[in-house]
Amino acid sequence: MSPISQLPTSEELVRRADQAAGACGVDLASWRGEHAVGSPINGATLHSLPWATAADVDDVVERARTAFRVWRTVPAPARGALVQRFGRLLEEHEDDLAALISLEVGKITSEARGEVQEMIDICDFAVGLSRQLYGRTMPSERPGHRLMETWHPLGVVGVISAFNFPSAVWSWNTAIALVCGDTVVWKPSELAPLTAAASAALLQRAIGEVGAPADVSQLLIGAPDVGEALVDHTGVALVSATGSTRMGRAVGPRVANRFGRSILELGGNNAAVVAPSADLGLVARGVVFAAAGTAGQRCTTLRRVIAHRSVVDEVVESLSDAYGRLPIGDPMAEGTLVGPLIHGRALGAMTAALDAATDQGGTVVAGGARVLEEQAADAYYVQPAVVRMEQQTEIVTQETFAPILYVLPYDTLEEAIAINNAVPQGLSSSIFTGDQAEAEVFLGPEGSDCGIVNVNIGTSGAEIGGAFGGEKETGGGRESGSDSWHAYMRRATNTVNYSGELPLAQGVDFSV
Q: Which SUPFAM superfamilies does this entry report, sorted A to Z (predicted)?
């Protein structure tokens, strides 16, 4: 593998953070606190911020509820004008936000810019949606009656986001929620508060420019107890939470206990089936990005390749060769493809998983070692690993949030689908094949049980137009495109009687 030889200095990283945040409207010089913001690039402290507390949640939610009572009466196309302006500001500050994402999360520049582009795209989608919040008119069984459904704003939406997509997931929820007439309270990851502050500042600028209520969007930077208070607050109509399955097990029941709504986007253990007819060149390109991109720290990261026994050796050799040429290091340096893990705990989890895989009969055929430790003891760069397994053991069924790719053999398509489905998670999956019948089976009801099922493309990445989410322990929620906007609104069924009579449904006679 090819490490980048020199990491940037702490002074350079701090300068970049100050510059990027300031360009987005965040004055870091006047915003000081006791909680350090670190960078995984070299372990440097970028800034120290004040944090909100759980006690602050009541006031923030009440302000959001007050703003909601005004915002819900604004026509949806006018609400779309706010999101449209926000999208244009994101375009103007794409490089600034991307820099903050790289600094706080360690994404390479192209991936960080891709995240901001997702934010821009969801704004464009939501603007169109603001004129398409359609209901239905259904035939009534009673003469002189009209039966229909209408959709109305829901209330306050609480968004809890994870470090690996520090702004895009918030934007998915926020752009849709705002055009639906909701207000938003955001609790970002405590690992990426500068990105959150900059994103929120740009939205606040758009709010001021279009004359929307100031509190339609609010930011709560704080510890997990702030998120817990948001989850439990009866004034929050919908909680959209992204994180681990463990987190979802706590959030879901607590929201349900107070009869709130939730959207849960949780873990993934995503697989790609490689059929005998697959284009192996296409496989290599698709697999390497999906498995090693973001240093394996995406919910859609490819973690399992299920290759037909006739091609599995060739697949392992091809992937091992590609992994050996991956440039690893400073994510902001030109040419880097793999940046750092977010923290030392991630390295520990990766090491433990590789040890377990070896104990369970696997062989590490590429990568797995830590690099650049001599330059930055508090930064955690690793070589993405390829592990050959003869069967799907316990460790393979677990999600390790690090760049480990297990390669397993199969003999029949039925067996490959069974391996794909035999994990608790159900987010993303794909099949590489030149056989149309195989593709259709994989896409069909007896195929992959995931929320995202692809053909001849990897598991990582998603287009804004399609609803994003998964099944089983992934949570079952949907965000972004398609009809996911339904989750952010309440439906009312309406009957209008214009007949001058009062016939009852199903011919009931209740004469008095």
A: ALDH-like (SSF53720)
Per the annotation, the verdict on 440 as an active-site residue is: no
The DSSP letter of residue 484 is G
Question: Measured between alpha carbons, how far is residue 155 from residues 68, 170, 311, 314, 408 in Å?
Answer: 6, 17, 53, 54, 47
- CA gap 186, 221 in Å, rounded: 8
Q: 338 - beta bridge partners?
A: 328
Count of beta carbons in the 10 Å neighbourhood of residue 139: 7
Spatial neighbors of 157 by CB under 8 A, at least 6 apart, are 173, 174, 177, 182, 183, 184, 185, 236, 237, 238, 239, 240, 488
**Residue 312 DSSP SS3:** helix
Q: What is the pLDDT of residues 467-494, one digit of tens each?
A: 999 999 999 999 999 999 999 999 999 9
- Whether 90 and 123 have beta carbons less than 8 Å apart is answered as yes
Largest pairwise CA distance in the chain: 90
Closest CA to 196 of 159, 230, 232, 233: 159
Q: Can you tell me the distance from the alpha carbon of 71 to that of 63, in angstroms, rounded to the nearest whole number?
A: 12
Residue 500 buriedness (CB in 10 A; 0-12 / 13-18 / 19+): exposed
pTM for the whole thing? 0.96
pLDDT digits (tens, 9 = 90+) for 348-381: 999 999 999 999 999 999 999 999 999 999 999 9
Distance CA 148, CA 371 (A): 62
- Length of the chain in residues, anyone? 512
> Can you read off the two tokens belonging to residue 183?
């207000």
